[in-house]
Amino acid sequence: MKIMRKALIALTALAMTVGACQQNGKTEEGKNDSTGASKVDRIQVPVPVFSEDSAYAYTAKQVSFGPRIPNTPAQEKCAAWLIASLKQWADTVYVQRTTVTGPKGEKLPCINIVGSFNPAAKQRVLLLAHWDTRPIADEDAFDKTKKLDGADDGGSGVAVLLEAARNFKTQRPDAGVDILLVDVEDFGDPSNENSFCLGTQYWAKNPHVPGYKANYGILLDMVGGRGSQFYMEKASQQYAPGPMRMFWDVANQIGYSDIFRYEDYGSYITDDHIPVNTIANIPTFDVLAWQASGQFPSHWHTTNDNMSVIDKRTLKAVGQTILQVIYTQPFSY
User: Where are the alpha helices (DSSP H) in 119-262?
Assistant: First the structure.
């Protein structure tokens, strides 16, 4: 991922596809949304309280399996736990097992996991995060061959979505929600952007339900680091400007203006939202830690990406915003 993999995307390349993607997500008053259903107004319901303690524990649980690298026992063990967890809460769970090809021709087992809530609902929100870890800490200052825990990069986004899923089971939202946990995101070669996000590329071409569509998607990546701030990533602003602005506005309204920022410090970043936008044609934005200096957090792709960087308030800010949006105004953008 990220600085090298999540590198700046050429504006001209994005411009070729962005217009159609934005049209798919249009939900103005009196218009239809991307599923053909009428827009849902804001809903007056009590919003569950997101438990940052649970999200922290879910992050630690993933780390306890060891680095979740394809072709390792940790991959299978963590996948089994994720599947079992979602089966407790979701109405339906889908598991995609396939083989993808790595940047050097490696055959890599890939396990994508989907938990669906309110599967009959026409209006849907897709929530996604990757659960694998990068095989080496290639940004580490001391030993670039070591493995890393991936507590923030992978673990935190999944943890937030698991806690959201637990709440969806306890208090069913009116909207349809699909939680997609994708594999083999971070195995790529920085010199080849297309060698990353392999699990998402596969899902976008082979969705868990044939013809699957959602009104929009929210990608979580590196959402648990201490001191993290989130700026509006440029590709997200082009593909899903309405949903993204709504999400930032809600985060600010409920007390997280120090974390969800409006300053123009974002960059074009290659992440899992790109294949969802360009292949699946679902307008999707990225919630991703970024620094005003134009860099990823210092623990990115280093051995410092462990539980010591995970901050409960950051997890809370992201998770509570998701619940607020899903329960009260999922399509009010």
Answer: 157-170, 198-205, 234-239, 241-253
